[in-house]
């Protein structure tokens, strides 16, 4: 007869192991910061992907001797490596910009608690500040106005989404400001259908949503019959209204994480058109930042070309000749000038680099207007791959 297992005792043992793991994670993080400190004088890049791959292969092999699946080990340590890289970058940036470091920051974002902009703001500053003073806004224009007037230190703005594309309003507004882009963060978007009370999908008659989530969940919504859409200024506003109504016939599109702040429950999960759905946010401030040499940088440029055949192509050829990778090109109409467009270009290069300085100079003759919107660290960390033979 097998020995009877005590579930409570097993859970206590797991809890103790989890606490030990957290202590080890904290110790490992402290050691990686020492690595960053050693790179200050040597000006070595933050990432060494060959070493990362070798590390993962060693860990996978050792994990197999312990009965651990290769994919399990890989996923855990890819997350740990990403955390290490971002923490090292944050540390080096604090050294490069000592005048703007503060334990407390104020940030304006769209909506209120629970919005995707709120979640992105807290995620970004979790490595950079001990306290965040929040300022929820009803529009992108209000966010920019609060930063420009000095009411807040930073503004968090969504700039593009993998499902619905560029956020045109942000592109149109940012060209008229004196602000600089000083950071970016990519926020996973996991749209759910949230309700305030226990109900079923066939009872839902009204769905509250911001325009962007609505567009990103159009396939799911098209399948629903006799449902009315109530558009809201932000996802947080939509969640607050549904929470207040406490009605079994209404729901809201939002994140499960944000919904918890309003005591909402997920009726349907993963309702976005694309399962891999992400929004890239940019952080704006009144002053530009310096990007440490060891950190991969991105520079945002806005320009208007001459009305001549091939003018934009000439600009892009300059970037190619300088070996500068362009990772984003977006066009927007120039207000008051029919059929003329402004181009937003993101390149993977530090503004202080000789190549980019030369490129901007050589592009100028082909443009009527050119302006650098900001140079900032690349926050998206591509996971180091492992050869399939090792998995």
UniProtKB/TrEMBL annotation:
<feature type="domain" description="Chorismate mutase">
    <location>
        <begin position="1"/>
        <end position="92"/>
    </location>
</feature>
<dbReference type="Pfam" id="PF01817">
    <property type="entry name" value="CM_2"/>
</dbReference>
<feature type="domain" description="ACT">
    <location>
        <begin position="300"/>
        <end position="377"/>
    </location>
</feature>
<keyword id="KW-0511">Multifunctional enzyme</keyword>
<keyword id="KW-0057">Aromatic amino acid biosynthesis</keyword>
<comment type="pathway">
    <text>Metabolic intermediate biosynthesis; prephenate biosynthesis; prephenate from chorismate: step 1/1.</text>
</comment>
<keyword id="KW-0456">Lyase</keyword>
<dbReference type="InterPro" id="IPR001086">
    <property type="entry name" value="Preph_deHydtase"/>
</dbReference>
<dbReference type="InterPro" id="IPR002912">
    <property type="entry name" value="ACT_dom"/>
</dbReference>
<dbReference type="GO" id="GO:0004664">
    <property type="term" value="F:prephenate dehydratase activity"/>
</dbReference>
<comment type="pathway">
    <text>Amino-acid biosynthesis; L-phenylalanine biosynthesis; phenylpyruvate from prephenate: step 1/1.</text>
</comment>
<dbReference type="InterPro" id="IPR002701">
    <property type="entry name" value="CM_II_prokaryot"/>
</dbReference>
<feature type="domain" description="Prephenate dehydratase">
    <location>
        <begin position="106"/>
        <end position="286"/>
    </location>
</feature>
<comment type="function">
    <text>Catalyzes the Claisen rearrangement of chorismate to prephenate and the decarboxylation/dehydration of prephenate to phenylpyruvate.</text>
</comment>
<dbReference type="InterPro" id="IPR036263">
    <property type="entry name" value="Chorismate_II_sf"/>
</dbReference>
<protein>
    <recommendedName>
        <fullName>Bifunctional chorismate mutase/prephenate dehydratase</fullName>
        <ecNumber>4.2.1.51</ecNumber>
        <ecNumber>5.4.99.5</ecNumber>
    </recommendedName>
</protein>
<dbReference type="InterPro" id="IPR036979">
    <property type="entry name" value="CM_dom_sf"/>
</dbReference>
<dbReference type="InterPro" id="IPR010952">
    <property type="entry name" value="CM_P_1"/>
</dbReference>
<keyword id="KW-0584">Phenylalanine biosynthesis</keyword>
<keyword id="KW-0028">Amino-acid biosynthesis</keyword>
<dbReference type="InterPro" id="IPR045865">
    <property type="entry name" value="ACT-like_dom_sf"/>
</dbReference>
<dbReference type="InterPro" id="IPR008242">
    <property type="entry name" value="Chor_mutase/pphenate_deHydtase"/>
</dbReference>
<keyword id="KW-0413">Isomerase</keyword>
<dbReference type="Pfam" id="PF00800">
    <property type="entry name" value="PDT"/>
</dbReference>
<dbReference type="InterPro" id="IPR018528">
    <property type="entry name" value="Preph_deHydtase_CS"/>
</dbReference>
<keyword id="KW-0963">Cytoplasm</keyword>
């Amino acid at each position: 007869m097998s020995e009877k297992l005590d579930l409570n005792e097993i859970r206590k043992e797991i809890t103790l192991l989890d606490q030990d793991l957290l202590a080890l994670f904290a110790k490992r993080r402290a050691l990686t910061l020492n690595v960053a400190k050693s790179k200050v004088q040597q000006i070595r890049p933050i990432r060494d992907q060959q070493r990362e791959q070798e590390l993962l292969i060693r860990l996978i092999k050792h994990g197999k001797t312990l009965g651990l699946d290769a994919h399990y080990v890989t996923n855990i340590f890819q997350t740990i490596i990403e955390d290490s890289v971002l923490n090292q970058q944050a540390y080096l940036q604090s050294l490069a910009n000592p005048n703007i470091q503060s334990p407390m920051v104020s940030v304006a974002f769209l909506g209120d608690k629970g919005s995707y902009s709120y979640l992105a703001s807290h995620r970004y500053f979790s490595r950079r500040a001990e306290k965040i003073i929040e300022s929820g806004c009803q529009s992108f224009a209000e966010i920019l106005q609060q930063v420009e007037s000095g009411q807040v230190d930073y503004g968090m703005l969504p700039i593009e989404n993998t499902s619905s594309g560029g956020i045109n309003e942000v592109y149109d507004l940012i060209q008229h400001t004196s602000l600089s882009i000083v950071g970016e963060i990519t926020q996973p978007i996991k749209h759910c259908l949230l309700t305030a009370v226990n109900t079923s999908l066939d009872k839902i008659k009204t769905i509250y949503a911001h325009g962007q989530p609505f567009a990103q969940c159009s396939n799911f919504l098209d399948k629903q019959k006799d449902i009315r859409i109530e558009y809201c200024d932000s996802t947080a506003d939509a969640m607050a209204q549904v929470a207040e109504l406490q009605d079994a016939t209404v729901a809201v599109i939002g994140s499960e994480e944000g919904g918890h702040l309003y005591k909402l429950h997920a009726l349907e999960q993963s309702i976005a058109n694309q399962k891999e759905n992400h929004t890239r946010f940019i952080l704006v401030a009144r002053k530009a930042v310096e990007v440490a040499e060891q950190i991969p940088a991105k520079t945002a440029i806005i320009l208007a070309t001459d009305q001549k055949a091939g003018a934009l192509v000439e600009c892009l050829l300059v970037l190619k000749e300088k070996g500068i990778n362009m990772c984003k090109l977006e066009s927007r109409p120039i207000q008051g000038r029919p059929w003329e467009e402004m181009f937003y270009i993101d390149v993977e290069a530090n503004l202080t680099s000789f190549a980019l300085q030369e490129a901007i100079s050589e592009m100028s003759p082909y443009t009527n207007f050119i302006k650098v919107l900001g140079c900032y660290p690349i926050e998206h960390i591509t996971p180091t791959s492992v050869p399939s033979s090792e998995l």
